Amino acid sequence: MIGMAFPDISPIIFSFGPIVLRWYSMAYLIGILAAWYLILRDVKKYNFSLSKANMEDMVFYVTLGIIIGGRLGYMFVYGRELLFAHPFSVFEIWKGGMSFHGGIVGVIIALWLLARKLNQPFLRLTDMVSVYVPIGIFLGRLANFVNGELWGRQTDVPWAVRFPAGGYLPRHPSQLYEAITEGLLMFCILFFCWRFEKIREKTGFVSGMFLFLYGVFRMSVEQFREPDTQIGFLFKYITMGQLLSVPFLLLGIYLMQRAIKLSK
After folding, report:
1. Inter-residue contact 119 to 91 (CB < 8 Å)
2. N or C: which end of the chain has fewer CB within 10 A?
3. Model confidence at 92, in pLDDT bands (50, 70, 90)?
């Protein structure tokens, strides 16, 4: 039989009465805490004018942006029927259903509000956060794999995986492709660039690079990912994930060009 059997991994780490800790929730938590620790280090290392209290505000705002933006993005793009039938389902985040594109929009809005509150350059804050967002993406995609969700299209490659929810057919482990590209590879590129003062001084450049790289990697990996069942293909060939990534890619190019132009 082609493909490897999906490993028997429970999506639940442990449960105690009504308390349930899932791998997906843990991915969000570790990603946020890791980014907070690394940004705190950068504030001291590069002498950014932010206090510890400012950083605590950033964590609070970004966390709200991720949850609210991710949930609303999912419900309005992928779960409209459920939303219209049961409006209060938008609050049932424990049942799953988060959109990364929506989460990024939520974080952008949250950082804009925070920038106004702290009287800080908005794009400086987005640069600081963008470097470490791929950590959360990496962990989140691994959690998707553990949950056996968002699997890829059928294939005969030797590393294909037979997901139970995918009909035990050999499929691309697209969650791992995304973890490697949108997570690990993007983090390495952004972190490497962030080390150079000339790049850090180009306010908005790293934010643009993040959006551009995410758009490129997401649109590429979507070629191996099964389209969402409730939507399918758009215009016969493209997926919703690819369509939503186009504005990110274009905005990323604009921000990088703008940062280079303003630094001259």
Report:
1. no
2. C
3. low
Residues in contact with 165: Cβ distance below 8 Å, sequence separation at least 6, in sequence order: 148, 149, 151
Q: Is the pTM of this model over 0.85?
A: yes
Distance CA 246, CA 12 (A): 34
Asked whether the beta carbons of 75 and 41 are under 8 A apart, the reply is no
Distance between CA atoms of residues 176 and 161, nearest Å: 11
- What are the phi and psi torsion angles at 154 (to 5°)? -65, 145
For residue range 219-260, list pLDDT tens digits in order: 999 999 998 877 888 888 899 889 999 999 999 999 999 999
User: Cα-flanking dihedrals φ and ψ of residue 196, to 5°?
Assistant: -90, 125
